[in-house]
Write a structure and sequence with these properties.
Layout (H helix, E strand, L loop, with lengths): L3 H4 L3 H11 L2 H6 L1 H7 L3 H21 L12 H11 L9 H11 L4 H27 L8 H29 L2 H19 L8
Helix pairs in contact: 2-6, 2-8, 5-10, 6-7, 7-8, 8-9
Length: about 200
């Protein structure tokens, strides 16, 4: 909705999105291992902490491009796709992984973020379709209204978040998000060490 004019591009652009999605087949094959990780609060905490440190220093680690017109090649799209697989680990942000993947391929923060959102369309569609196929029996007349309301609210919140996120990221970078993740990750680890019983809902 926000980038529909940018999304309808050349076939070359769609082929690059397709190439970036190919590594998701590997993620599908690891589904059982992923489900096991989803039960571990410690994995989430460590992922938040490590990811936060990474976000604080990412701008220093990757050279900034000279302009916003650095081309996205098929090779770069594939590399970003492989980096996206990291996001199957609970606590790792898909958008952060793909944005950083784009920056590692010399894309600007803005262009990397936009490609990350474009890549989310086929990625989340495929993931949602797979989960729906596996769990369609759980949807009934009794809970369809809740499902529709949840999707509508998510849509509105996502629109606001994407629009503000791109502007904020372009201007300030990742540091604020990095500090947030470190604080939450440390808080979870401290609670676990203190013997608190934490579960992932």
């Amino acid at each position: 909705m926000l980038y529909w004019k940018r999304f309808f591009q050349t076939w070359d652009f769609y082929f690059k999105l397709f190439v970036a999605c190919l590594p998701l087949v590997l993620a599908y094959l690891l589904e059982k291992q992923i489900d096991n990780m989803l039960e571990s609060v410690l994995i989430v905490a460590v992922a938040l902490l490590v990811g936060g440190v990474f976000l604080i220093f990412v701008d220093r680690w990757f050279d900034k491009p000279e302009n916003d017109n650095t081309p996205l090649t098929f090779k770069k799209a594939l590399i970003i796709g492989f980096i996206q697989i990291i996001s199957v680990i609970p606590g790792v942000s898909r958008s952060a992984a793909t944005i950083i993947g784009g920056m590692s391929q010399k894309l600007s923060r803005k262009n990397a973020a936009e490609f990350s959102f474009f890549l989310a369309v086929p990625t989340m569609f495929a993931a949602s379709a797979l989960k729906l196929l596996q769990n369609y029996k759980t949807i009934s007349v009794d809970n369809i209204n809740i499902l529709l309301i949840g999707n509508f609210v998510s849509f509105i919140v996502a629109m606001i978040a994407i629009k503000s996120f791109i502007a904020f990221l372009t201007r300030y970078g990742f540091k604020v998000f990095g500090y947030y993740r470190i604080v939450v990750g440390l808080a979870l680890i401290i609670m676990l060490l203190a013997g608190k019983s934490l579960t992932i809902l």
